[in-house]
Amino acid sequence: MANKIKYGLRNVYYAKATEGAGGVLSYGTPVAIPGAVNLSLSAEGDDNPFYADDVVYFRTIANNGYSGSLEIALIPESFKTDILGEVADDDGVLVENASTIPAEFALLFEFQGDESATRHGLLRCTCSRPDVNGATKEASIEPQTETLNLTVMPRINDQLVKMRCAYGNAEYNGWFTAVHAPTFTP
């Protein structure tokens, strides 16, 4: 039975992407991003109707992926080095370089539901550097979160953007151990 509702973002992982010949991406082992708070993505693309005979005769719809944000408790150091390109100096201090280009990655996550947790994968993501924010402690402690601004693009070689996997699918249990490689039989 399919879910009727969804809630509860959890099990967020990233897997660094490496581009090979023909734009084919391969992915490293997924790494957990603990402390997921919110994921918000808006569809990107155009909807262009063509009118003839006084009706919409033909319509083109461009799927350019998504853009939005991932809010988490604290960005892990592994993400800062693997994806944002920060490097440790001789004293172990992480340093940000203005000429570094962030790496592409896959983003894996799941939403809870009334029947099962549906698992999702975004296949070609980039993100910008997060803002630096903080606040003083007052009468009570309010945790401060960090936000990654994401862009999700179609892959170059096959135009795939995202995937999802329901409980019971053969790929479900291994979803967070490796990025699923979609195959299609003609």
Q: Summarize the amount of helix as a percent range.
A: under 10%
The low-pLDDT segments are none
Instruction: Kindly provide the radius of gyration, computed on alpha-carbon positions and rounded to a whole number of angstroms.
Output: 19 Å
Described by its quaternary structure, the protein is single chain
- Characterize the largest beta sheet: strand count, sense, and whether it forms a barrel: 9 strands, antiparallel
Topology:
Blueprint: E1 6-19, E2 25-27, E3 31-32, E4 36-43, E5 47-52, E6 55-61, E7 66-72, H1 77-82, E8 87-88, E9 94-95, E10 105-113, E11 118-127, E12 146-152, E13 162-165
Antiparallel strand pairs: 1-2, 1-3, 1-10, 4-7, 5-6, 7-12, 8-9, 10-11, 11-12, 11-13
In short:
The protein is mostly beta strands and 186 residues long. The protein is 3% helix and 44% strand. The strands form three sheets. Strands 1, 2, 3, 4, 7, 10, 11, 12 and 13 form a nine-stranded antiparallel sheet that branches. Strands 5-6 form a two-stranded antiparallel ribbon.
